[in-house]
């Protein structure tokens, strides 16, 4: 399997994989608000809205879901904040959540740019 080419991190480090300096600055998942309360909320959300692209109104929205754009019914695995917490999105407000599959969630994150 070929190695991924080195990349330049936002801090200027050149390398492969995650940057230890930037990961420390970002904080742990719990420090960012993803604690046991969030895990329980997320499980309940995904049980209620199991399809990629679903939001609180029950409909599938194509804005961040490539699956919904192509009309594919794919099981969601992630409860995503439509507006991120770092941009002022509400942590436990159902109007700020959508169900996404891992692929659509990664594509949304990649399109957003590096985490600060």
Explain how this protein is built:
The chain has a domain at 34-112. The chain has four helices and four strands. The mean pLDDT is 87. It has helices spanning 20-26, 36-48, 66-70, 102-112, and strands at residues 7-8, 14-15, 78-81, 97-100. The chain starts with 6 loop residues before the first strand and ends with a helix.
List the helices and strands and how they pair.
Blueprint: E1 7-8, E2 14-15, H1 20-26, H2 36-48, H3 66-70, E3 78-81, E4 97-100, H4 102-112
Antiparallel strand pairs: 1-2, 3-4
Give a quick precis of the structure.
Helices cover 31% and strands 10% of the residues.
Helix and strand succession?
EEHHHEEH
Helix content: 25-40%
Number of helices: 4
The poorly predicted ranges are none
Into which percentage range does the β-strand content fall? 5-15%
Strand arrangement within the widest β-sheet reads: 1-2
| Mean pLDDT across residues | 87
Sum up the overall morphology in one term: globular
- End-to-end separation in angstroms reads 31 Å
- Calculate Rg over CA atoms: 16 Å
Number of strands: 4
């Amino acid at each position: 399997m070929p190695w991924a080419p080195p990349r330049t991190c936002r801090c200027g480090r050149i390398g492969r994989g995650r940057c230890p300096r930037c990961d420390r600055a970002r904080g742990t998942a719990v420090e960012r608000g993803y604690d046991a309360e969030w895990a329980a909320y997320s499980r309940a959300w995904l049980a209620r809205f199991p399809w990629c692209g679903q939001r609180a109104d029950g409909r599938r929205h194509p804005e961040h879901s490539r699956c919904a754009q192509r009309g594919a019914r794919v099981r969601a695995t992630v409860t995503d904040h439509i507006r991120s917490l770092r941009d002022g999105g509400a942590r436990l407000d159902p109007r700020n959540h959508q169900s996404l599959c891992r692929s659509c969630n990664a594509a949304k994150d990649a399109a957003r740019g590096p985490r600060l």
